[in-house]
Amino acid sequence: MPKRTDLRRILLIGSGPIVIGQACEFDYSGTQACKTLKQEGYEVVLINSNPATIMTDPDLADRTYIEPITVEVVERILEQERPDALLPTMGGQTALNVTMRLHEQGLLEKYNVRLIGANYDAINKAEDREAFKRAMHNIGVDTPLSRLIRNREDGMSFLEIVGFPAIVRPSFTLGGTGGNIAYNREEFERYVDWALLTSPVGEALIERSLIGWKEYELEVMRDLKDNVVIVCPIENFDAMGVHTGDSITVAPAMTLTDKEYQRMRDAAIRIIQEIGVDTGGSNIQFALNPANGEMIVIEMNPRVSRSSALASKATGFPIAKIAAKLAVGYTLDEIANDITKVTQASFEPTIDYVVVKVPRFAFEKFHGSNPTLTTQMKSVGEAMALGRTFKEAFQKALRSLETDRCGLISLNGLDHFLPEDELAPSVSEHIRTAMQVAHPDRPWHIADGLRAGISKSEIFSATHVDPWFLDQIEELVLFEQRLLDRARAHARETPRESMLDEIFHNPEERERLKEAKGLGFSDQRLAELLNVPAEAVRAFRSIHLPSHHVTYSRVDTCAAEFEALTPYLYSTYGRECEARPTDQKKVVILGGGPNRIGQGIEFDYCCVHATLALRELGIETIMVNCNPETVSTDYDTSDRLYFEPLVEEDVLNIMEVERPMGVVVQFGGQTPLKLALPLERAGVPILGTSPDAIDRAENRERFSALMTTLGFQQPRNGSAWSGEEAYAIASRIGYPVIVRPSYVLGGRAMQIVYDEQSLRQYIKTNIMTTAQYPLLIDQYLTDAIEVDVDAISDGADVVVAGVMEHVEEAGIHSGDSACSLPPHSLPEELIDRIRTQTVALARDLRVVGLMNVQFAVQGNEVFVLEVNPRASRTVPFVSKTIGVPLAKLAMKTMVGHSLRDLNFTEVPVTRHIAVKESVFPFTKLGNVDVLLGPEMRSTGEVMGIDQDFGWAFAKSQAAASLSLPQMGTIIMSVKDGDKPGTVDVAKRLQTLGFKLQATRGTAAYLLERGLDVEPVNKVKEGRPHLVDHIKNRQAQLVVNTVGTASSHHDSLPIRREALQQNIPYFTTIQGIQAAVTAIEAMKKASLTIKPLQDYHPT
Amino acid sequence: MKKAILALADGTVLEGRALGFAGETSGEVVFNTAMTGYQEILTDPSYKGQMVLMTCPHIGNYGISPEDNESRRTWAEGFIVNEASRRPSNWRSELSLHEYLVHHRMVGIEGIDTRYLTRHLRTYGSQAGIIAHTDNVNGSPDALVAKANALPSISKQDLVGAVTCNSAYEWNEGTGAWPQRFNARGQIDPMPARRFHVAVYDFGVKQNILRRLVDEGCTVTVVPASTTAETIRTMNPDGVFLSNGPGDPEKASYAVPHIRDLLGWRPVMGICLGHQILGLALGLSAYKLKFGHHGANHPVMDLRSGRVEITSQNHNFAVRLPSAGQPECPSAPPVLSGVEGSRVERLETPWGQFQATHVSLNDQSLEGLVGTTVPALSVQYHPEASPGPHDSSYLFGQFRAMMEHAHA
Questions:
Q1: For chain A, what percent of residues have pLDDT higher than 70?
Q2: B309 assigned to active site
Q3: Is pLDDT above 50 for A806?
Q4: Which of B120, B275, B382, B390 is flagged as catalytic?
């Protein structure tokens, strides 16, 4: 059927900020949808609050609203834009939930908007657990024994039937928020309460546990003619009990017979038909009893998902793009297969390689978090790798994680090359214990278990990981043991330099080295096992195995049955290389790798812009990345895509094959930056700012020298290699100081220390980090305002693109604080000084491309905190605020264009103001403190844009799911230092009509100053205390600032409770000041929204 | 680990590791892109004369289960894989792949760059090859290449004769625990009350065809390929079924006069080789495809409804459709467009009027025929699946409907 002609304008809803459970994959799918619909001639109206996305680039949609994704705002868009249809399946759970509410409130009908892709009934049937169960029953597909409950008593009575362990899931949440496994009554009660609370409809599901069953996912596509195809069966390495997002997943399914697979496929087809998803993709999860093959359907997502992004990347079948086409009426047989160009999309991809996805976690950043993996997703990102076997793909995936593990290393020193000592019994006990819990380190625990001689059957009982996977890991471990034995045999008499020659002295032994590469061992891992430097392995291979080098195969959707015209490549060690590099002018762009805290979608945005810019200049682009969620790893984005780990060996391999004119390292965050020096050593030209300049900015000594030469102020600082040295430096600088180990990303283990005793404590707990790197100590500037600056330079001219004033004080990680562009309170004179210093820094470092500088303003003094000669997290935010694609321009400067040529010599004057706010994963990670500090913990960001700071801030809060109250009670408990600042806030709140409550100290201070405040008990002062008030939802907003460590602990329940009750809370005085300004603005004027295209008319 | 060599007629020599029975074997090398179902493939009689290369990189993961056999033994001449799993993992598995191959004296090879070999076959076409385990290598790789060159083409062999049954037998087992037949509500349809007797020409029948016929309420008698129309008439079945099988349909053309005789007398259904033989019976010709269709993901469009079925396929030959409905004048295969309802080719033959019903979306080759004046239908692909998707399972129901109609 041809496309629909009764539609002209289509509204697309994005997924908002990056949170656990909703990450870049929805930028990937949304971007595909935008592009596709536009190509088909539709006008696309888009709403997404996340500025760091490609989809919110003003040229992707016709009308781009960077506004909070709420019913109120979407209604306003319907009213303003009058779209004919709404496509709700591209923006994750966020888009589905808003769509459901729009329908329920009759707004879709009111504005005559049709749902395309999936209708209300289908979404409801898939999302409502009871309805889903009934539907499955109708078509004879089994579901887990379960009951929906609305209170704890019903839960307890059903518990009698299902027994322990029991699964507790809240209804209608994303990423399984609030889902838990209860092993005893106490846990059960706690999880039920929590689930009822987090569910937006106050419902929870109690379910028979299928822990230990095998878990599978099928990606299903359906068109209007009822043609259904399965894009890919995915098998989870981790059994049921671990959220799919936290599981290692493998494609194709590895341990299903054809009969079992077809039964699952039949069920999937019947499910999508019964649920009634008219067109597009759905994800269906199944559990299979490994003992008897019993099959149960777990859930269905009637939309594109993280798994569909993965399946798209795993097979080359672009689910979101095709789903968008199906939604407007095409059928699968009318859509071409992009990869082969000669076949159609109405087929099922078949693959001749193995794909492994591994999740990336960030527990180390959340003190108090519990790293046990459950049905609630906790990972913050993922890496994917392709290989010719599971073993190869698995090892590549593990090193793609960038967790300083070059493979399946031993966590217990069982892979040391030295002659083997008797294994201490305590070690295998330790491993046994570790294996019992699903933990991010599980693969390493399994490998260590095998190394320690624990049987596979015992490992299987402890982990439920399918014996097939255990066999694969065992093969790797056994291979490694043989290498180790060789190394040990030579260890005594052979000097390190000739180790490799000794071990691999004849061709037969050298075969073993070939085999190692085929199994996916990195040179670095081999070097570790053989106790030689990593470079030596590479050098040895190129001398002694010159014809055995890496080859690249194409992802072709069809296992080589047809020719692949699209160069989407992965490395292996095969007989022929299908890379077929061109001799065009070409540039390699290194991506950002898996998402983690501090390294997210912003860098993918920059990489995609780099490729767009080069295309405009007619230069061929080559993307290297291993993050399956991203737009950068869409085979459409660049001319050639290498889906590879971003580690030295793999990247150098690509350089050898492609021989580009240069490589871009400044767009992918820290990941590629770390590769700048090795690449330069290998003779690869680094485009833009030189690695030496990068080093001048990153190296503390050289940076201090730079500051001195330019005469700029920086906080007093020093580097300590020992505790004594640290105490001496700290007392020279004067407390408080900020301490952190060097060379870490996103401020890991960074802390503000107020006295020597705390410093001793810090060093004691972080001894591991100080042993490896020096401890960095900086003066902590109290009561300072932090300022972030993004600038661009072509080596001669410098343009300061954005000066952002942080809302929270200096000392709170810049990635975690809200900021305002332009500054909302700084005097123009100071801003000028900041601009001047930025320009001077860029000139001195001869920056070509982007640069970010962080300043602190204390009183009238300006300090330079940090200079990053690369794209920063704020580049997309600034670009969208000022209406200039900075990353694109920066890319062009790197290939020789001047800013003058590019017609960018000054920033356009804007009358609006934009606020960036950070979004945190606190609800997902257990009992962690929500206080902000120097360690970054946010996963994503939103943007609020309006005519004044108040409304922009209000929008940013709403976009971050904190709707500021218009009336009610406000509870305050602030530290002494903040009390003076509270007076003004309290006065304004009182004027606005809020009732004030405060803990004794705060209340007394405010009462003295003539405010009407009701005192409330602190937790230790008896009941009812303020946590009771919060629990009873008698407060609409909570202000809690704390100083000392002990008060942190005492007040933790206040913040946790506010978080759990989803009551807006502020932990800094600057934060509440901004919030009050916002509330004032909201009372003064009503909501207005405007698309980006109207802010920056062209 | 013992070594093994794979030598192709065009001189390509690949070294790998020995798998399965130690020895030497030969056959036409074809690649199959299915990701599951290696046991069904090994036991499919259609692979007689061929060595199967699996493009899926891990084979043997779920072992071997007796109920997954498609015939009483393995038929493929050799097995070529990237990596064979030593230890299987599946609740039904009773043997490992290696043990199974040894048991059935099948010579295999692993550690082959199967993607390279597939691309090679795709470019240069299917060709003869030899697998030799090194202990059993007689002479150099060059000698193996020469030997491969000397192998007779599969077009010249009566492979059907090698796989068909010696005498007629009854079959009464259905798909049982692995149903493929669902009603509109998605539930397993109960077996129809009405029983039909079907005579199945065994050109190399896959047992799942028989199971599916039983599911449809048929009592099944399997007869040898050489059975005459006269014998069939004496049996007086309600329908005649032409099974799948190996090789070139021309080599089984002895069945043609008997099929012509039976057309119009009783409903006829053909699958794969059975479809090709029906084509020959209608005066059409068959041609050899460059590298055949072997896989479980082939899209086929039903030209009448415009709907697409994902099908299981395994054939090297296809029926050539005359472009202007002149059966005696074979020409290049016509391009049948995938647009709904358009260009449904009609075919006048002395044995009745037929029309093309199905076409491959990958290469537009003919995938199905139906009689418009005589009760007959045939498809080039495998509605019985096993391995592969069940999308086309409904065809057995259409055959039953023809028998019901004939009785009405």
A1: 97
A2: no
A3: yes
A4: B382
Q: Is residue B277 within 8 Å of residue B252, measured between CB atoms? A: yes
More confident position, A103 or A1050? A103
B residues 243-282 lying closer than 8 A (beta carbon) to A: none
- Minimal Cα–Cα distance from B318 to chain A, Å? 18
Tell me the chain A residues in contact with residue B58 when contact means C-beta distances shorter than 8 Å.
254, 354, 389-390
Contact A907, A626 (CB under 8 A): no
Give chain B positions within 8 Å (CB) of A575: 14, 113, 116
> How far apart (Å, rounded) are the C-alpha atoms in residues A300 and B172?
38
- The pLDDT score that the predictor gives to residue A342 is 85
If you count them, how many residues does chain B have? 408
Q: Count how many Cα atoms sit within 13 Å of the Cα of residue A492 in the half-sphere of its side chain.
A: 4
Give pLDDT, residue B190.
74
Contact of A795 with A848, CB cutoff 8 Å: yes
| Mean local confidence (pLDDT), A154-169 | 90
Q: Quick one: CA dihedral A326, A332, A336, A337, positive or negative?
A: positive
For chain A, the average pLDDT equals 93
Q: How many CB atoms lie within 10 A of CB A796?
A: 12
Q: What average pLDDT does this structure show over A343-357? A: 95
* Residue A621 pLDDT greater than 50, yes or no: yes
Range A752-755 contact pairs with CB under 8 angstroms and sequence separation of 24 or more:
A752/A780, A752/A811, A752/A933, A752/A934, A754/A1044
C-alpha span between A928 and A238 (Å, rounded):
26
Residue A497: per-residue pLDDT: 82
What is this structure's pTM?
0.95
The answer to whether residue B334 scores a pLDDT higher than 60 is no
CA nearest neighbour of A314 among A119, A84, A85, A570? A570
List pLDDT tens digits, range A71-97.
Answer: 999 999 999 999 999 999 999 999 999
Every domain of chain B and the residues it spans = 3-151, 160-407
pLDDT for res A747:
54
* B57 touches A: beta carbon within 8 Å: yes
The class that CATH gives domain B3-151 is alpha beta
Q: Which residues does A729 contact at the CB level (< 8 Å), separation at least 6?
A: A718, A719, A720, A777
Same fold, B3-151 and B160-407: no
For residue A7, give the H/E element and its range.
none
For residue A583, the tally of other CB atoms under 10 A from its CB is 7
Residue position matching structure tokens 């600088």: A733
Q: Test B58 with A574 for CB contact under 8 angstroms.
A: no
Place of tokens 């004030």: A996
DSSP per-residue codes, A1013-1039:
EEEEB-GGG-SSBHHHHHHTT--SEEE
Asked if A25 and A305 touch (Cβ cutoff 8 Å), the reply is: yes
DSSP bridge partners of A148: A205
Q: Which residues have C-beta within 8 Å of that of residue A1020, sequence separation ≥ 6?
A: A1050
Burial environment of residue B218 by CB neighbours within 10 A (0 to 12, 13 to 18, 19 or more): buried
* Domain B160-407 part of CATH 3.40.50.720: no
pLDDT given at position A949: 97
What's residue A420's pLDDT?
59
pLDDT in tens, B147-174: 999 998 888 889 999 999 999 999 999 9
